[in-house]
């Protein structure tokens, strides 16, 4: 199942720099692992914002919630999820 996900990152300004660097590094490693698994086929930066738009391909709402809530940055992100369905005019499978 496909989901459009927007993540707006809201790391507190007063977070210790070392803690922030570790958090961002762990998030990057986790994100790349999920991408390599095929569950995160699109990850794009929103121009001019500390935010991304992504496409996730997972088996259920519960699976997506487990994945997103497991992101190291989850506590510091505003996340919006839009489930996607086939479009009748789409030429691709
Ligand atoms: O930077 C972001 O968009 C937030 C998060 C998503 C992937 C990642 O490495 O960090």
UniProtKB/TrEMBL annotation:
EC number annotated for this UniProt entry: 5.3.3.4
Keyword Isomerase assigned: yes
GO molecular function: muconolactone delta-isomerase activity
Listed InterPro entries: Dimeric_a/b-barrel, MLI_dom, Muconolactone_d_Isoase
Positions of transmembrane segments: none
Keywords tagged on the record: Aromatic hydrocarbons catabolism, Isomerase
Enzyme class: isomerase
Biological process annotations from GO: beta-ketoadipate pathway
Domain (Muconolactone isomerase): residue spans on this chain: 1-89
Reaction(s) the record says it catalyses: (S)-muconolactone = (4,5-dihydro-5-oxofuran-2-yl)-acetate
Record note on quaternary structure: Homodecamer.
Family: Belongs to the muconolactone Delta-isomerase family.
Name the UniProt record assigns to this protein: Muconolactone Delta-isomerase
Lineage: Bacteria, Bacillati, Actinomycetota, Actinomycetes, Propionibacteriales
């Amino acid at each position: 199942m496909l989901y459009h996900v927007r993540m707006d990152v809201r790391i507190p300004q007063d977070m210790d720099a070392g803690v922030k660097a570790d958090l961002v590094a762990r998030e990057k490693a986790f994100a790349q692992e999920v991408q390599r698994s095929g569950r995160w086929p699109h990850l794009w930066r929103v121009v001019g914002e500390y935010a991304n738009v992504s496409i996730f391909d997972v088996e259920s709402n519960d699976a997506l919630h487990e994945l997103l809530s497991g992101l190291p940055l989850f506590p510091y992100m505003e996340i919006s999820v839009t489930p996607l369905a086939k479009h009748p005019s789409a030429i691709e499978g």
